[in-house]
Amino acid sequence: MKKIQNLLIACSLLLAGCSETPEETDGLPGPAPVKYVSLRLDAGAGTRAGLDDALRVKFQPGDMIDINGTAYEVFLLDDGTAAVPEVPVADRYEAVFPSACNFLQQTKETANFKLPLAQFHAGPGTFGRNAMPMYGEAAGIDEEKGYVNIRLHNMCGVLKLTLKGSATINSILVEDRSGAPISGYATLGTDDGGAKILVTDTKSSARSHHLVMNCGGAGEGVTLSEGGTDFHIVLPAREYASGLKIRITDRSHRAMTVDSPTPRTIKRNVVTETPAITYAPDADLVFAEYFDACVWGGNYAGNTKGYSPSQTESQQSSGSLAGTTADKSATGVEEAPFYVMENAAGTADYTNVWNAAPNASGGNVTASYLRNRNLYDWTYLYRCSEFQGCMRISSPTLGRGKIHTPTMKNITDGNAHKVEITFRACCAPGADQADNLGCWLGDGPTGKNNGEICEEVYVNGESVPVTNKQFAYIPISKIGSSGWSEIRLVVSGFTKISAFNFMKQQNTNATKTLFFVDDIEVRLLD
Length: 526
Prior knowledge:
Elements: E1 19-20, E2 34-43, E3 64-67, E4 70-73, E5 75-76, E6 82-88, E7 93-97, E8 113-115, E9 118-120, E10 134-138, E11 141-142, E12 147-154, E13 156-164, E14 168-176, E15 183-190, E16 196-200, E17 207-208, E18 210-214, E19 222-223, E20 229-236, E21 238-240, E22 244-250, E23 255-260, E24 264-266, E25 271-273, E26 277-278, E27 285-289, E28 297-299, E29 304-307, H1 313-318, E30 349-350, H2 367-372, E31 380-382, E32 384-387, E33 390-393, E34 402-404, E35 417-427, E36 436-442, E37 453-459, E38 462-464, E39 471-475, H3 476-479, E40 485-494, E41 499-504, E42 515-524
Parallel strand pairs: 2-12, 9-18, 13-25, 13-26
Antiparallel strand pairs: 1-2, 2-6, 3-4, 3-7, 5-6, 7-10, 8-15, 10-12, 11-12, 13-20, 14-18, 14-19, 14-22, 15-16, 15-17, 21-24, 22-23, 27-42, 28-29, 30-32, 31-34, 32-33, 33-42, 34-41, 35-40, 35-42, 36-39, 36-41, 37-38, 37-40
């Protein structure tokens, strides 16, 4: 097994000993000169969240570390060591790595750290770069060595998940079955041994009840082996008394959920292994899209805040929020405690033109970005935007949009089948109660209905009359805007070339056209 790479390597820069002396003004002396010091970042035993004594995390070019609330780029030396020179002299030094996890303000009494919603797969023997938050402190200069020596320690633990099979994985979602937050804002606590850990904040409006390991890359995903492929997921160190829920999605639009009530303890700086899981989606599940790889925006229905693509680099490093919209707005750029570490796009909106390079004002995203989310083969993603684990359809300013699924390629025979289509929907406040959300049935590429017939419609278990057998209309008055509604359609005539879309019936250019869709499944009934 490959080793988890060395985490933070000690540096050997000596005390810089320099200062800046302001010039005198009008014959009066300026402020006291600013003195600077170099820091040595020491990787002690507390940095080894790994599978043997040698496993640590390694600095890479461009990595940022926070010292006393200011982000600094680490400097890599020829011998592989690293340093942070010219830090202002202080009585006490606090360091957080990576700086994007920090919301460190010396006078702030509430949650002042943040755990990312997304981690990125980095190989079978390591966890994602920048996924492990670390903390260290020092009282002052080490007089014997001539510099500040800060020993950094991991603040979380690692879940080792081993999957067997032949599929290519796109994402792995992890939830605490108790419903406790697992990412977002956190406070600095201590474990039983007195080491610093991050404790997720249950009161903050900036929290998430799941985290995601993104395995999509630029579309290649992670292909499993029959012998087992390891995934290392960084989790808050605590008791998970109710167990974990783990949802695995693959590149062929199928999925498997492992709902395990077995209690688990994730310890700081320890890899907790689980029994190997054979990835085997239900035989009747021919299509699944939970939008688990989507992380922009907030949790709309849950009214909690999330990551904003418009957040500047300085806002990311300082921990300030992007403040672009009010709660319950639907632009996809809610206030932003979640920092997506890598592979992140710079815009929030999709259009249906994703095979060409995006222009500066078009709001398009790159092809590799859509491949990462496993949305590249969708027929349309028009005037829509991802939120935390769901898709917003329509634009606040441009009016009605739609999303149109790929064809059902997991139906491998040439027969027509009866299927059950289930999904969740939520409408924006002020939605026209006389309007409908439509689910149009037909061939994705041509827009042609090939004999697909909607026979039954249910909203939250209540039967709704079928008024159009090709375009299933779901009354907005039944869906509501106070949370998610569960929609179920029974459809006959479904084949491997079948697809369906979602769009509002009326094309009105107003915010009230907005609605959200999540947890789409298609299952065979025959």
